[in-house]
Structures are given as structure tokens and as C-alpha cells.
Known about the structure:
Elements: H1 10-32, H2 36-55, H3 61-84, E1 88-90, H4 102-119, H5 123-147, E2 151-153, H6 158-190
Amino acid sequence: MINQIKPVDIETITEIQRHLLEANYHYWIEHVLFSFNWWFLLVLSIVPWIIWWQVVDKTRLLEISLMGTLAIILAITFDTAGYSLVLWSYGYKLVQMTPSLSSIDLALLPVAYMLIYQLFPKWKSYFIAHVIFSVGGSFVMEPLFVWMGIYTLHGWQYIYSFPIYIVMGIGFKWLILKMDAKQTRAKNKVK
């Protein structure tokens, strides 16, 4: 489809974006705001953080928070890329102006990654926990969101998400452990 579009100037693209923004806004106001799915997404945005604050190991708060921050950054990046490439779209969003599913990118995913990081310190159990989480995310939560009309796939398959969830978790833990080791060496040098 992209190859069929004739070249246009930036003003035409900007005008199309304005029309799209207007259409999205009206759709969100008329069909999304205060709907069951909107309230569901609001709860998904708040409850994970309340649970996390109750159970997080506050002696490792910065380390665990780094895991969540990395998850947020990558989730938003992947989500924005997939949305921009029309691999998926969202029929329901908590906030109309964002291309991402913020309830997942800013709450559910980072909290899940942080809890797995905290609760499974050994590599083997951590890996197993991420496989289980990836199965749940890819083959339970994503289909549930599709069924609810929150998430629509356009060429994306659930199976594609499965290794991404695992690789993200493994990569984040590896990076945090490397950074922690570097910090420890630097502190020992100072002494």
C-alpha cells in the first residue's frame, strides 16, 4: 500500500495528520471515554503500582526501579514502532493522544518485570519465570485484549511477542548485573 501512494509535500502530510487527530479524538470521546474498557485500562494503570509498592524490596529500590524503567522505555519504543508500522492498533486507549497502550507499557509490563526480577534472583528460576510470563502475556493477555476490542492485530501474531518478552527480561537482568558489578568495582577502587 505504501508504494501506491503518490509523493506529497509536508503540508499535505500535516493536514492528513490533523484530520486523523480529529477523527481519533471524536472516536475516543464518543466510544472510549468512560466505557467499560476505559475503566478496565484505568484500573490496569493503577492497581499494579499499588501492589508493587506494597511488595517491593525497599532495600533494593533503585536496582528494581531500573528494571522497571528499562521495561517502560523498551515497551513504549516497541509499541510506538508497531503502531506506526500498522502491525496493530488500539480500539481503546486510556489517553487519546498517545499511540501506545499506556496501561500496559507504563504499568502492567514494568511491574511484572520488576516483580520477577525481585522474586527470582537465580538465573534458572528467573528464566523459567520469564517463560511463564511470556506464555501468559502472549497467549492469554494479548488474546484477551483482542477479544475485548482493546487491541487489534494487523499482521502481528501472538507468537512474535513470546520471544520478545523473554529476551527483554534476560537482557535487562544481564545489563543491571553488569552495571552493578561495574559500580561495585568503582566503589572498591575508591576505598
